[in-house]
Amino acid sequence: SYENTNFGGGQIQTTSINVSGENVQASSSLFGQSFSEIIVVNGKQYSRTMGSEEWTEQTATVDRQSLTQMQGFANLPSEASSSENLGLETLGGSDAYHLSFALTPDEVKSLFKNVQASQLTSNAGGEVDVWVEEETSFRLKYEALIRNANITEQIGFGDIRVTATITSINEPISIAPPV
Predict the structure, then answer these.
(1) Tens digits of per-residue pLDDT, 98-122?
(2) Which residues, including other chains, have CB under 8 Å from residue 148's CB and lie 6 or more apart?
(3) Are strands 56-59 and 8-10 parallel, antiparallel or unpaired?
(4) Are 64 and 45 in contact (CB under 8 A)?
C-alpha cells in the first residue's frame, strides 16, 4: 500500500502466492480487479493477464525464489542498524516472536534490490517487522515500511508498506497446469 502521498494512501495491489516444491501459482489484483496469474509446473510457465481467459505457455522464466523474494530478509539481523525483540504475540493461532528492525536509507537500498533504484534514491529509511513462530522458527509475517520513496512520477513521493503473511506451511497443496 501507499501512504502519506499528495493523494492520500490505500491498498493498490494484492498478490497471492502458493508454493509446492518448485511449482508455483501467483495471482495479482490491482484495485480489487484480477490483473494477472502465473502458474509454473514442471518447468513450464502458464500466464494470463486482465481481460483474457486464454493462457500462454512458455518455458519457465520465473521460479519460487524470484516470486517470493524473501531471501534477502534472512540477513536482517546483520544488515539493520538496530533491532528489537518486542516479545511474544499470537498470530494466526501461533505464538510468535515479534522482531523489529530499523533501516537507514542505505540499508533500505541494500535490502530492497528488486525495487527500481530511482524509487529509493531519496528514501528516508524504514523498518521491517518479522514474526517468527516460537515452536518451529518459521517466519509467519513480514511487514516493511519504506519512507519517502518515489512511487511513480504521477503520484510522487510517499511511504510504501508491504505486508507478506505466510500460511499453510508444510501443508499439502496441489498446483496444476491450467486446463
Answers:
(1) 999 999 999 999 888 878 888 899 9
(2) 122, 123, 124, 157, 158, 159
(3) unpaired
(4) no
